[in-house]
């Protein structure tokens, strides 16, 4: 606890890991091949915009809270991945969550792109389920949220985002979100419900069955299967 370090790298840990109050000055924080659960609280990577959190081959649940990171790279997590009150402040490089066999939960997180970021995106792919609640984009630049090929249900509630796409997922619920940009729902199956949202532009293509969309406010264009989403 309460550690000031140039970098942190943990590999092949047979038990669980708990860390809090960490201020990293010089390099990424990386956890690799941890067999137990991981709890991270108050991780501060704000010293340089390219400092990121990397999680690879995590066999238990992972929880990150009250932290500031430049980017997120989480791949192959066999348990659940939960981020609560986490600020991703640069997106150098782009952030990726891929192959989480459990559920990805992001709540009360903020996304802000540095002016030098070449691809300010958060991509969440091939996960057992995705829940995004009360997250927001801040700052002048847009951050695109891409959710694709998730075999579990995708639930979006009360987020304030600027661009979002939900593609090739099984079961989608978007409720009470504000999207100050384009929202695309494409190729989703097993039911798509879009209700009570505010969009600048909305497009729905190739969803089966067609989305159930009502009580939405669309400032610009509503196209495809969501042409009557009001």
Kindly summarize this structure in a few lines.
The chain is an all-beta fold.
Q: If you had to describe this structure to a student in words, what would you say it looks like?
A:
The chain is an all-beta fold and 230 residues long. The protein has no helices and 26 strands. Strands 1, 3, 5, 7, 9, 11, 12, 14, 15, 17, 20, 22 and 24 form a 13-stranded parallel beta sheet that branches. Strands 2, 4, 6, 8, 10, 13, 16, 18, 19, 21, 23, 25 and 26 form a 13-stranded parallel beta sheet that branches. Residues 1-6 have low confidence and may be disordered.
Encode the helix/strand succession as letters. EEEEEEEEEEEEEEEEEEEEEEEEEE
Query: Ends: how far apart?
Result: 51 Å
- Low-pLDDT runs of 5+ residues are 1-6
Give the class from helix and strand content and strand pairing. mainly beta
Overall average residue pLDDT? 90
Bin the helical content.
under 10%
The overall strand count is 26
Radius of gyration: 18 Å
The helix tally amounts to: 0
Major sheet details: 13 strands, parallel
Anisotropy-based shape: globular
In percent, how much strand structure appears in the residues?
over 45%
Topology summary:
Elements: E1 3-5, E2 8-13, E3 17-24, E4 29-34, E5 38-44, E6 52-58, E7 62-69, E8 71-77, E9 81-88, E10 95-100, E11 103-107, E12 110-111, E13 121-125, E14 129-133, E15 136-137, E16 144-148, E17 154-157, E18 160-161, E19 163-167, E20 170-175, E21 178-186, E22 189-195, E23 198-205, E24 212-214, E25 217-218, E26 222-224
Task: Name the descriptors.
mainly beta; globular; single chain; 230 residues; 13-stranded parallel beta sheet; 60% strand
């Amino acid at each position: 606890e309460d550690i000031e370090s140039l970098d942190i790298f943990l590999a092949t840990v047979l038990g669980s890991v708990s860390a809090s109050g960490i201020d990293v000055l010089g390099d990424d924080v990386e956890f690799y091949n941890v067999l137990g659960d991981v709890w991270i609280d108050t991780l501060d990577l704000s010293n340089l915009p390219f400092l990121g959190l990397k999680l690879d081959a995590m066999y238990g649940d992972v929880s990150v809270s009250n932290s500031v990171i430049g980017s997120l790279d989480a791949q192959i997590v066999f348990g659940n991945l939960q981020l609560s009150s986490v600020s991703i402040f640069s997106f150098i490089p782009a952030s990726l969550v891929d192959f989480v066999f459990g559920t990805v939960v992001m709540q009360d997180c903020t996304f802000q792109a540095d002016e030098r970021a070449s691809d300010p995106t958060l991509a969440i792919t091939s996960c057992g389920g995705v829940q995004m609640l009360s997250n927001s984009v801040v700052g002048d630049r847009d951050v695109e949220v891409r959710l694709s090929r998730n075999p579990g249900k995708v639930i979006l509630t009360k987020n304030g985002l600027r661009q979002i796409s939900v593609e090739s997922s099984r079961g989608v619920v978007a409720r009470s979100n504000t999207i100050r940009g384009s929202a695309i729902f494409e190729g989703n199956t097993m039911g798509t419900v879009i209700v009570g949202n505010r969009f600048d532009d909305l497009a729905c293509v190739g969803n089966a069955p067609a989305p159930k969309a009502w009580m939405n406010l669309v400032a610009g264009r509503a196209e495809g299967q969501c042409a009557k989403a009001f």
